[in-house]
Amino acid sequence: MTMTRREFVAGTAIAAAATALPIKLESQSQPSQSDVWQLETQWKDAEWDGHKMRLRCYNGQIPGPMRIVQPGDVLRIHLKNSLTHYDSTGWDGNPDVPHMLNTTNLHLHGLNIIPHLFQPVGTSDPEAPMIAIEPGASYDYEFLIPKDQPPGLYWYHPHHHGSTAVQVVTGMAGGIIVHGAIDEVPEIKAARDIPLIVQDIGLFPSEDNPDIWTYEPKQNSIWQTFGGYVTIKGTKTNLRGGFTTGDYKLRYFLLNGKPFFKEEHRYCEQLLSSAHDAPASTCSSQDPIPTQLTPQQIELAPGEVVRFRMLNGNSDNMMPIIVEGHDMYLLAIDGNNFEAPRFMQMQHPDGTEPQVLLAPANRAEFLIKAVSTPGTYRIIQLAQDQQFLTSAKKVIAELVVKGPAKNMKLPTRLPFPSRNLPLIQPSEIKRTRVFVFASTFPGVQNPIVGIDFMINDELYGEFDITENPELNTCEEWHIQVPNSQHGGTEGHPFHIHVNSFEVISVGGVPLPPATIQDVIWVPQNTEAVIRMRFKQWKGKSVYHCHILPHEDTGMMQNFLIRGTQTFETADARPPRH
Ligand SMILES: [Cu+2]
Fold first, then answer.
1. How far apart are the CA of 555 and the centre of ligand 1, in A?
2. Pairing state between β 429-440 and 474-481
3. What is the CATH T-level fold of the domain 418-565, as seen in this structure?
4. Which of 272, 291, 292, 532 could form an SS bridge with 262, CB 3.0 to 4.6 Å?
5. Cβ(494)–Cβ(437) under 8 Å?
6. ∠ at Cα 500 (494, 506), nearest 5°?
7. d(CA 358, ligand 1 centre) in Å
8. How does pLDDT run across 239-296, given as a tens digit for each residue?
9. How far is the centre of ligand 1, averaged over its atoms, from the C-alpha of 545 (Å)?
């Protein structure tokens, strides 16, 4: 596939007077009196800068409510699907063609809990189907949070194959915070705790009402990113929107539910409204037009230490992050804190070097000590071109340093999570496996989508098990993205369920010991080496690319952890009734 690297089009800030919008844990909800967390998927009407929208959400909120849990908790969730019927009668049964777009299920991302995508939860049956909660139906989950669950930021989102991307990119995602030892470190306890939940919203004009923006493509309809038209099985239609592998007619990037950046396709209006035969070359531009919106502001006193917890909840956008004018003290990635804060020197806002890089689904938790000079300092997502869609520089939020000075302290040591000990020794590696994440264009196995997104040359199959690791053993996995001649046209973020992994090296460069994550960005023409201990839980689960349109169209596989799970290893309690 040929890629046009886009020039960054300077965003125009909305000129309206910036209203300072303090970010707080407004969506936080403590455990209710009811022992069961009631989660409901719903449609939600919204309006941002003149655009009326119909989005999907949990409990009327975007992002969904923030849940706080304690290690050892039993988390019971009643998930009710109140989305509407979606017509998939035209679907031919190919699992890697998006389908059943309002059917859902639930994944608690990063938590070291029982495998929960297949029916019944914890199943070791290779033929077990994926949990599919139809519109109008509901499902009850019960999760034991391990006593040694590393404390930090996790999240939840739907994971029904074929509808994950559409649901997440219209609002269905929320945070989970696990409390633990790190919260008792005095310097951290004293710091304000500020979640930064970033997510994207991808939209097209509704087929029924062009004044409403939504994302509910007709079955088999695919948006041709660089043509601006929609095809069904390769034939042009006059539909306004189709499934996309990452591009949208209108897209917002949100921080804690408020947009800070917008991308629009303004071409092909005549094509969309009438003629089906106009060539794509009549379009004025292939590139979405980026617009910086007014970012939210967070006030800090000079010398104040604050704790940020940032989620990249984007459907596909990788985020290199810097905090302008400030050193960063990185505490944790993906909820797994280090033995000590990692010092990330300040970087120039016009440079290319991030202080921390967040692949889709990664979380970074870090401290910032506000400088002594009052002023406005931006939290910036640097431009990057490591993906099929070039990503413009974005201002996510602004730190306003003002007022009387404080002199808060930074911690020097952190309590290392016991679940991640002992670190895996090379002698423990029972097996090494190699995984190649690559795509073929045009799609051969998946002609409707038009691109094959594969792991080891295979698309996803619900009942195929590619790997059978053994409980209580360790393995080393080599995740490879080839060069562009061999299908590696862009980087892919690798994610696996059930256990986090140690990142050993990326591109041959070793990482500091005890770098433990559940998602790792693997750039084009690069190998990442990870090590994993299959701990506590057996059963059928998945590993996949966390670019959600890639995942939904095939870049996922099942694995099955086999072994005898004793009562002790499972740390399970019988369900309470
Ligand atoms: Cu991918």
1. 7
2. parallel
3. Immunoglobulin-like (2.60.40)
4. 291
5. yes
6. 50
7. 14
8. 999 999 888 999 999 999 999 999 998 765 444 444 444 444 444 456 788 999 999 9
9. 5
